[in-house]
Amino acid sequence: MKKLLLLSFVIFGLMTTQNLFAQVGLRTGINVANLNGYSFDSRVAFRAGAYYGFELMDKIKVEPGLYFSQKGIKSDVEAVNDRLSYIDVPVVVRYGVTEKLNVFAGPQASVLAARRFEGPDGVSRATSTIRGYDLAAVLGVAYEIYNGVGIQVGYDFGLIDLNYFDTNVKSRVFHFSVNRNF
Can you tell me the distance from the alpha carbon of 19 to that of 24, in angstroms, rounded to the nearest whole number? Predict the structure, then answer.
């Protein structure tokens, strides 16, 4: 876990020295998250972070980011609410379809930072019932509304089993966000 965070900071550092005219920004929004293989309801939760984008070539930009992202599941019928808080480190490649519209895709590494499970037996913060990291593929579309302010819709689909309560499930997350470039 510490190695993954250290690696992400090293990559950020290398990229900042590569291009002084890069784009830095903040992004915040909501996640609609679930785990495939379960019939629980999706959990609507918070997402916020920062990104650093630099142009690789005409119309193609590489954008690593660092986000606090809440995911999980809930069920009113079974009285279960599992809030999983992750540190997400996506590295997406953006292709500019037009000057204001772009599509993106790339890998994402996530580290489980905290957990709050509320069930019929009470509240637990134990993280031993789920894998402490996740790897996902990210894809989506973004549109610049006005002068550095934009909106984005994306989908993260987990590539590895999370071993959630000894069940092989993968994360699925729709995210909707607003961003500001500086």
Answer: 11
The pTM of the full predicted model, rounded to 2 decimals, is 0.85
Choose among 73, 66, 72, 81: nearest CA to 27: 66
Name the burial class of residue 51, with classes exposed (0-12), middle (13-18) and buried (19+) by CB atoms within 10 angstroms of its CB: buried
Q: What is the pLDDT of residues 131-181, one digit of tens each?
A: 999 999 999 999 999 999 999 999 999 999 999 888 899 999 999 999 999
Strand partners, 141: 103, 153
CA 39 to CA 57: how far, in whole Å?
44
48-78 pLDDT, tens per residue? Answer: 999 999 999 999 999 999 999 999 999 888 8
